[in-house]
Amino acid sequence: MKKMAVFAVILALFVALAGCGGKSSDQSSESGDNNKKIIVGTDASFAPFEYMDKGEIVGFDVDLLDAVMKEAGIKYELKNIGWDPLFAAVQSGKEADMAVSGITINDKRKQTYDFSAPYFESTHMILVKENSSIKNALDLKGKMVGVQNGTTGQAAVEKLFGAENKNIKKFENTVVAIMDLLNGGVEAVVTDNAVANEYVKNNPDKKLKTIEDPKNFQSEFYGFMFPKGSDLKPKIDEALKKVIDSGKYTEIYQKWFGKEPNLDNLLKQQSS
C-alpha cells in the first residue's frame, strides 16, 4: 500500500508537470504570434526609393524601413509585389501587412487605407530631352506626356488637362515611361522630383533635363500604408518619430540624396 501511495504521488506530480509544460508551450506560441514576421510590400522600380540592385531591393525607403522596424522591434520581410497589386495586397491584408513604395498620402487613398505620419516631402517634376522647348507644366498642353498608371503624377497631369485626355500615356512603372521618352514615344514624363533627378544624375549620356514648376505642382508627402484599423500604425508612428529625433533619418537622407532634409516642413506636416 505504501509503495502504491508513493507511485500515486509520483504519477500526480508527473501529470501536473506535464500540464505545466503544455501551458508553457501555449504561451510560447502566443508569444510567437505577437512576434510574427510582418510582410511589407513594395514596387522595386522607383529609384532611389526602392529598386533592384544585384538581386536585392535597395533604396531610401528600404533603409528607412529597416531603421524604423528595428526601433519598433518588429521582424519583417520586404516583398517586391508591383505597384497596382500592392494596393490590393494591403487592402486585403493577406499578402502584405503594410507597404512602403514612395506612396503619397492623399484624401482619396485615406478612404481605403491608413497611413503613418509623413516621412518624405516630394513634388512632381517634368523630365524632358535637353533640346526640348518645354519650360513648365502648362507647356505640356498638346504634348504626349508619360506617367506611371495609378500615381499622383498621373492625377497631377489629369488635373491640368483632363482625365480623358488622349495625350496622357500611362505606363506600368516610371522606368518604362522614361524609356519611351528616350525612344520618342512621349515628349515628357511627369514623376516625383527625387526620381527624375536621380535618373538624370546617373544617366548623363541620355541627355535629359528636369523642370520644376511649384506653381502648378504642389508638395506631397509619402507615408507607410496599412489596411484600415491596423494596429501597426501607432507602433510605426512612434518608431518613426524616434528615428527622426535620433538623427538616423537625416543620416539615411544624406546617404541617398546628398543633402540634409527639411525637417521643419516634415515635422510641421506630421503635427497638422
What's the gist of this structure?
It contains ten helices and 15 strands. It is an alpha/beta fold.
Describe the structure.
This protein is an alpha/beta fold and 272 residues long. The chain has 10 helices and 15 strands. The chain has helices spanning 2-34, 60-72, 83-92, 107-110, 152-161, 174-182, 193-202, 232-246, 248-257, 263-271, and strands spanning 38-42, 45-46, 50-53, 56-58, 76-80, 98-99, 113-115, 120-122, 124-129, 145-148, 168-171, 188-192, 208-212, 220-222, 225-227. Helix 2 packs antiparallel against helix 9.
Show the helix and strand layout:
Layout: H1 2-34, E1 38-42, E2 45-46, E3 50-53, E4 56-58, H2 60-72, E5 76-80, H3 83-92, E6 98-99, H4 107-110, E7 113-115, E8 120-122, E9 124-129, E10 145-148, H5 152-161, E11 168-171, H6 174-182, E12 188-192, H7 193-202, E13 208-212, E14 220-222, E15 225-227, H8 232-246, H9 248-257, H10 263-271
Parallel strand pairs: 1-5, 1-6, 10-11, 10-12
Antiparallel strand pairs: 2-3, 3-4, 7-15, 8-14, 9-12, 9-13
Helix pairs in contact: 2-8, 2-9
